[in-house]
Here is the input.
Amino acid sequence: MIKPRTWFDALHLCQQQAKSYVLVTLLATAGSTPRDSGTKMLVCADETYDTIGGGNLEHSVTQRARLLLIENQKNALAGTSNTQHVEHFPLSSKLGQCCGGATNVLFEVFVSHCQQLALYGAGHVAQALVPIIVQLPLQIIWVDEREALFNEFKANYANLGDNLKYMLSDEPVATVKQLNPNPWMLIMTHNHQLDYDLVTAGLERQDVAYLGMIGSDTKARRFTTRLGHRGFSQEAIQRLISPVGDLSVPGKEPINVAVSIAAQLMQKLQVINKDPAKQKAQWLSNRQLIAKLETNS
Here is the structure.
């Protein structure tokens, strides 16, 4: 994948791949400075994009941005991870520069609340689905035991993004326990018994936030009956979404089914993004930034 050359392109890429970043902006400059007010760069944990003038100023700002990123990542689960912060940087001997100017730098920290999605099965629907959902803020783990199918897909779709990981496994059910907290699971293997085993493993993990399985109404009813006989409560069984997808999307071709599933995933992501607690935290953070700017002016 070609590295973005501008902060704008990098920001788009980070949002697409649900990658945490800090957007740095020179708010105001006085005297001689390497770049003008409004200049931006984007800092990630492992990369920087664009420039605010280079030299020790950029080095110090990059280090500060990464420290803020680490601090805010620790608070990610509390819903207060996205913040703004302003600092004053005099371009003096302290920074090893003799420009004689000064600048205020705005650090806007965006920590990804990235949802992990484990996709089981690499058949026709999955191969139509992955190029769509890889563009969403998801960390996708694609699990199958058939290496040939992965190789076929990679030949057609190279370098889709860093948020897609292939996992070859002869024991897909065992991988369920290895998933992150509150994962999403999407089950569409070529084997109904394997589908059933994956569903039971997902239900046994009470933190699975989305459990979808491809199939017909008949398959869903049979699985529901088997799960009941196995001792799962009706409340637990109702966590299984099958048939999966937005059923208002017509057609049974792989691309139609893939689009319906992608639509359902996007709807769920919208619900997460509209979390009132996160919106309130962002509003309070904006008010703090305004107050700080007024104090410094």
Observations:
- The longest helix spans residues 276-296.
- Residues 278-294 have pLDDT under 50 and may be disordered.
- The chain has two domains: 7-113, 115-273.
